[in-house]
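INFO  loader      accepted 1 record
INFO  loader      residues=185
INFO  predictor   begin
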Amino acid sequence: MTSARELDYDIEDEVLADSPQALKALGSETRLLILDLLLDRAATTTHLADALGTPKGTVGYHLKVLEKAGLVHIVRTRKVRAMTEKYYGRVGRTIVMGATSSDTDPLYMIHAALREVHHVEGEPLPMFTIRRARIPESRAVEYAEAIAEIAAEFAAEPREGTRVYGLLAGIYPTDVPTFDDEDGS
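INFO  predictor   done
INFO  writer      dumping tokens
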């Protein structure tokens, strides 16, 4: 079985999506699903349409948006009868979103996770936890970096098994009240 580490074309470990065009391209669930499928292997419009259960014309449109945004590219072609099949691949294993405009929903990842989470009673996953800690910002940044490392390790796992799992984690400032630093006695 092909894994993210065994793709048959060159791919960067990480690419930055910071242009308005790239950020807009990442705002579509269909395009995100296409990008996820392309972690398994390069694919044609037909392969992707079959996997998504979506018309080829729709997939072709989304591939063009991703290509213009610099997030996918044609990694090879193959002649089939009188036609040339184009195989698309990702440009990066991980796509890091750059600064977004003020009108972009900062919680888009949480909303995406809520839309795609699949819960089956009796299964051990999903598992979520929420914790709060009153710590210096420098420590919060260290935890964020550790989470980013775990997320990269998670994304680099071989593409196998029968189900796709998601990982959602973050460090965020809250408006949870605190006591003054004075002794409360």
